[in-house]
Amino acid sequence: MQNNKPIKxxxxxxxxxxxxxxxxFYTNTQAVETVVKAKIQHHSDxxxxxxxxxxxxxxxxxxxxxxxxxxxxxxxxEISEDVTxxxxxxxxxxxxxxxxxxxxxxxxxxxxxxxxxxxxxxxEDEIRHQWMIHGLPKYLxxxxxxxxxxxxxxxxxxxxxxxxxxxxxxxxxxxxxHTEKGMKAELIVGNGRGDLPSIPGISAPKYADSFNSK
Length: 214
Hints:
Layout: H1 12-51, E1 56-59, E2 62-65, E3 82-90, E4 103-104, E5 108-111, E6 116-123, E7 128-134, E8 145-151, E9 154-161, E10 167-172, E11 184-189
Parallel strand pairs: 3-6, 5-11
Antiparallel strand pairs: 1-2, 2-8, 3-4, 6-9, 7-8, 7-10, 10-11
């Protein structure tokens, strides 16, 4: 028996809407795949980067990167002296310096060339802070850096050895805006090379803020 029921037709608008839904689904799927691939690549790059950073120890409280207790720089025949730096970090250490938010308990240290320096670093805030030094020889310290990082209140201790040259090393906290808000210091080895700018209590800023009301 022949079926005489009329065949339902679809409007042009309905077909367009259906096409947009299918296209949107395909586009969203592509976007998700792109995000997933980017995250996988990011973790892969981070893993490779961390492998190249040398000696690292990490736990839930923070990390120490590029510690060196016994490998002498090429220009040192022996360790000249052992120096211990005890430094604290926190909001309260910014109070003597208007315009700052965070601070170190000290902002300048001295050591002889070829010294082994042990840093006992205490974070008194609930947020993450670092004690990071730059400019060390890269054949011993990948990226020329030694770092202690603490994720909230706590203390970590680690050591590094400086070369024989007279130099002024930058010390700071590399968390976003922490350097700019007061966490900046210097380590002077031997005669140094002059003070770095903008060290709280030590030197004037290179570009002073202007608060002129006119």
